[in-house]
Amino acid sequence: MPWSDQGGPRNQNNNPWGQPGGPWGQGSGGQPPDLEEMLRRSQEGLKRILPSGFGGRGLAILLLVAVLAWLLSGLYTVGPNEIGLNLIFGKYMGKTQAGLNYNLPGPIGSVIKLAVTDRNITDVGFREEPAIVDGRRRGSPAAPRGPEAPEESLMLTGDENIADVKFRVIWQIDPAKPEDYAFNVANQPGTVKAVAESAMREIVGQTQIQKILTADRKLIEPASQALMQKVLDEYHSGVLVLQVLLLSVDPPQQVIAAFRDVTAAQQDLQRLGNEAEAYANRVVPEARGAAARILQEAEAYREQIVAEARGQASRFEQIYAQYKNAPTITRQRLYIETMERVLGGADKVILDDSSKVGAGVTPFVPLPAFAPFQGGRK
Q: Is residue 146 domain-resident?
């Protein structure tokens, strides 16, 4: 049996037990004593502990104490953020919640504790070394910092362009299926990263680069998260994807200036479109109002003309009815009324149609011509 030096006191013979003969006690030349002598000494010590002597009963008691101690060693505690997995001879038997729990001790049983509420961060496209605070990994969801990994971030878009996509996946162990996480996948963080990169490549490969850089950027995150969760569930990985964050989506560095110009032009186009729509929203109601006013005026004019025509027709019918009763008088009255309207504002010469000679001219004094001389004033 090998004996290791644990840094205890040494004597001049470099003996860690501080006495000649090393761990075997007294002996000549450092040789261990006789085995029978050792058993005798052990029996004497046990006799002092067990008055009845070291027989079968004493051996049974020692064996029982050893078994009890071994069984009690199966007690274990599970933290509030953990779930315990009980194994018997390496076979999964069930899971335990936070608190004091029991499983058969080793080598028969064993326990795997998984922190199911801790959130894990997987970065794709770059390498970040976040600060360690209170023993926990602190990552920031802000812009990526650290060495880049172009073999992960460069992705082909649907219109055969290349986009530099850096994103972060926040995930945790599924509390409902921690056994899948422990037994079905060997390298869980590596699997999550591979699935995340594959899902993002599929989503980006179905989208045009302009939409990725502008309007559809916020649609990529939930789509990739759903696809990741679907693939991981098919793997029975026991991983729950909480969030996917797009940290940066840019064209390759060689053409980023040209793409920024295109993005600015797209934004100008959208702005002008919004201004045109606002102008249309203002002008169209005004035009509709003017059209409604014209229609109403036309309707009023039509009603006026129709009413006047109906009035004239009614007047004519009334006159005609009177004409039938007294044709001569009605004809004379119509003639006089017509002459009054026609000759009322014209200069007139009145002649007497008497048959007397010289009596055909009737003196006429234009009294309106003398109106300015009334009162002695011109």
A: yes
CATH, residue 199: 3.30.479.30
3-state secondary structure (DSSP) of residue 320: helix
Asked whether the beta carbons of 289 and 282 are under 8 A apart, the reply is: no
Same domain, 178 and 218: yes
Residue at 375 is within a domain: no
Q: Identify the pLDDT of residue 153.
A: 85
Q: What does the DSSP assignment read for 198-218?
A: HHHHHHHHTS-HHHHHTTTHH
CB environment 133-143: b (16+ within 10 A), e (fewer): eeeeeebeeee
Domain containing residue 57: 30-72
Q: How do residues 144-189 score in pLDDT, each as one tens digit?
A: 555 677 788 888 888 888 888 899 999 999 988 898 898 988 889 9
Backbone angles phi, psi at 125, to 5 degrees: 100, -10
Q: Rounded to an integer, what distance in angstroms lies between the CA atom of residue 223 and that of residue 241?
A: 12
Q: Can you tell me whether residue 22 is helix, strand or coil? A: helix
The answer to pTM > 0.70 is: no
Structural tokens at position 296: 């109403």
* Integer Cα distance of 146 and 326 in angstroms: 117
Distance CA 59, CA 259 (A): 85
When divided into structural domains, the chain yields a total of: 3
* In a shared domain, residues 40 and 94: no
Residue 126, C-beta contacts closer than 8 angstroms, at least 6 positions apart: 144, 145, 146, 147, 148, 149, 153, 166, 247
* The pLDDT value given to residue 46: 60
